[in-house]
């Protein structure tokens, strides 16, 4: 059985191949029960947590397990808030194949899923990308979106300009031909962006939904809590909304659940989920004036695909 570490994941995966594999996998029948997230402190809604995400397709059975301890970084600079592993098994025999670093796969698959959604939902001529967030995921989001659309300008916004500049440098090193810069005027950037991709830990909406103009595509990946959200109700109401997985989003995403609690939205207004876009049973963008929104909380099947690609590549070398 292979043990695949983070460095091997980063060396093995690339966005064109990963996005193509995700599109193919999500277009076919697969098993993916609702993921189970367990609070380790029932007195707090945002406490330490442990989660288990199972899935399977024709080739592979996978289970991802992760721990989330949000206060870890304050305890020690050596501690991460998230630790994750993915175990994969051969679908035909059940034989264990690999233990894979799940944190690095999560970066890649989260960004790739957003880019895949954009490939269905953003305008084909989209050239201006706004990324909200300056964490480790931010550069992945920027590079993934730039792999599916003719992006010529990327704006990075965050509350800490120094962190935003670090993301700019990382993206520039991979795509020097793209104009990448720190965003110092969020309203102007939102109003002028073709694609807005948000990956933050913010518990409250990042911007006023009225700023988003016709033809814009937005996606939100940072929030996994039913009482928090990265976008406001105004944006949800003016958008055609799609999700990565209804079973998970309808249980966890405040972006959808809070407007429902307000009595102004319902789950039947969500147009559909990623698998329907991939198998062509659902059409994505229909015109250039449509505002589209893609909400993701992450899926076990996407973890499976990332781990599966790395295993195949490394098992053959």
From TrEMBL:
MF GO annotations: oxidoreductase activity
GO biological process, one term: carboxylic acid metabolic process
The organism's place on the tree of life at top rank: Bacteria
CC per GO annotation: cytoplasm
InterPro entries associated with the record: NAD(P)-bd_dom_sf, ODC_Mu_crystall, ODC_N
Family as reported in the entry's similarity comment: Belongs to the ornithine cyclodeaminase/mu-crystallin family.
Protein name in UniProt: Ornithine cyclodeaminase family protein
Organism: Shewanella atlantica
